[in-house]
Amino acid sequence: MRKPGRAALVEGSCTRVRPLLMTVFTTLLGLLPLMFATGTGAQIMKRLATPMVGGLFSVALLALVVLPAVYMLIQRFRYREQLRAGENGRPQVRPLPEEDAQAGVS
């Protein structure tokens, strides 16, 4: 059964949090020795590890916060455009999908 708007976003984000954070933290633990190394070739390794760590954090933020927010904005825009167009030139007045979920309508 397909869930409406916000409920689907929350459930999808919650199911992705654990695998994404596990991947980020294990990779980060592997890169920490490279970032704090002081031996031969440490300067080159620091230059490689630093952008990778920054990229990991930015991808996690993008996947968990930005993409769901952008998706919700696009869905709202499409829904409002459908309301404006309506059938036979008359606008339809219906609540947004997340309001249906809050009211218990499936």
Structure characterization notes:
The chain is mainly alpha-helical and about 110 residues long. It has one domain. About 75% of the residues lie in helices and about 0% in strands.
Keywords:
3 helices; 106 residues; elongated; mainly alpha
| Oligomeric state of the chains present here | single chain
Number of domains: 1
Largest sheet, if any?
none
- Assess the beta-strand content as a share of residues: under 5%
The overall average pLDDT, rounded, is 80
- Work out the number of β strands: 0
Cα-to-Cα separation, first versus last residue: 9 Å
- Ranges with pLDDT <50 over ≥5 residues? none
**Which structural category fits the helices and strands?**
mainly alpha
Rg, alpha carbons: 22 Å
